[in-house]
Amino acid sequence: REAHLAAAQGHVEQALKINPNYGRGHIGRANLLYDQGDLYGALQAYATAAALTQQPPDALVGVKADMGSGNVNLAQLIGHPIGEPCVDETRRLADQGLRHYGAVVAAFEAGGDIDPRLHEMALAAHYSRGKLHVLCGEEEAAAAELRAALALAPAPPLETEIRALLATLDREES
Q: What CA–CA distance (Å, rounded) separates 26 from 61?
């Protein structure tokens, strides 16, 4: 794993040396930093990618930056007691994650349903929004997001996971 990460890091740095405005390179850097546990560095790299203009539309740089930033925000909430209200810093992080994931869903709804990559990201965004709502004790909002994820027809392993989480919420409501 470490050898693969190091090789990928070398490729990303080489690409960015050739073209510092290469959005996909910044997304690659951000993903590597995320995988290495450097959430702050990942968030900065996603922001750099999102700020770049004149990227090929099919590169989906902005959408990928929003998805990655949302994932960072979700990861930053690990350790928050599940179901406890999010206040102060946890509320800020949850709201940022919801906003980033919401941008992914909006891109899909704006006509991205013809792009299978946007479909998969929108599905993941709904699911992750559901998990953020679960963390913050917002059961109704969580259930709505999980149902939206199911409506996008996830593959069996993810579908099972979503249905299990939704069943947990339904039991809690009873």
A: 9
Tally DSSP H helices, then E strands, for the chain.
8, 0
> Going by C-beta distance under 8 Å and a sequence separation of 6 or more, which residues neighbour residue 25?
12, 15, 16, 19
Distances (CA, A) of 102 to 21, 31, 54, 84, 121: 25, 20, 23, 22, 11
Phi/psi of residue 87, each to 5°? -130, 160
pTM over 0.85: yes
Yes or no: say if 141 and 101 are a contact pair by the CB < 8 Å rule: no
Distance CA 33, CA 4 (A): 13
Task: Render pLDDT for 28-44 as a digit per residue (tens, 0 to 9).
Answer: 999 999 999 999 999 99
